[in-house]
Sequence to fold (347 residues):
Amino acid sequence: MRLRRGLSLVLLCLVGFLSGCAPFVDQDQISRGATEGFLLVPGDQIGQTFVAHHGGLSGIEFLITPQPGTQGVLRLELSTGPGAEPVITTASIDLSAGSSAAFHRLAFEPLRDSHGSYYYASLTFEGSGGVFFSQAGGDAYLHGALYRNDAPEDAQAAFRLAYDPLWMALEVGGAFVDIVGALGIALLLYVLPGWALLAWLWPASSLSWVERLALSVGVSLALYPLLLLWTDAAGLHLGPLYAWLPVLLGGALLAWRYRRWRPRCGRDRLLRWWSSSARWPDIVMVLALLLVFGVRLVVVRTLEASIWDDAYQHTLITQLLVNNGGLFESWEPYAPYSTLTVHVGFH
Fold:
């Protein structure tokens, strides 16, 4: 009960702290290198497409300079694309000639589910004078483009995105929940089959659990291409069973191998481990593994496709394995090839 109350208090303090924080400004957007620009005057319209990389999008900052004698309001309409309806949200700021050249924020209510969403920011100026917008080349930002009167240009407005820290933290927390699920599936696929084989073939070894874990991963990974090759040689295409069979057989082997196991055995072993010198090294190992996998999976959650040079053909091979329920020779209908010689079975 005390532990539950303590955790609740910590969570409430964290939520209160985040709700009072200033918005997080993502530095992934253009913040420097903007050497040119254009003048926005009443009657014209500019826009910028972009992708939000976090939840809780709450504002857009543009690098602007009001011109001498300028008086008016800069208005923002946010939608899903040029000319798209309805408008998601609006924002505005008052500008005058005394405003300095800086990133000016157009703030709006946080968009809770903005992570990975495509947006179009449309800007107009109402008043007298004009507003100078800094810009950079078209390759300065990879997820959008600058628009002038609804026509795309090979350029990017100098802008940054601001996020509400509370909704951003909640979105990242939700991503960690997904990561736990992905790691659980990975343990079933790439640890359990190898662990079962080692439990039967190397039962009396003096391996630590970390060493056994590493060997289990290697053995499990070696099973899948062999299974694909052997079944293909026999004319069998098992489809989803390529994933299910090693897991189910491994689980059955472990259940039979440890059929005499009792909770007391596990408790005694846990107590011996807790009082041994391996306790802290093992704890550090687990934390390091969780941190490595967690950080990497959180980072790549924003990707729509793999980013490596040969990602396209590997994705295509994977899709063909799914289409054919196993190994294949013909790459139709995607490519006029009739062979498979690259990393056979590892996809």
Observations:
- The chain has eight helices and 13 strands.
- The radius of gyration is 28 Å.
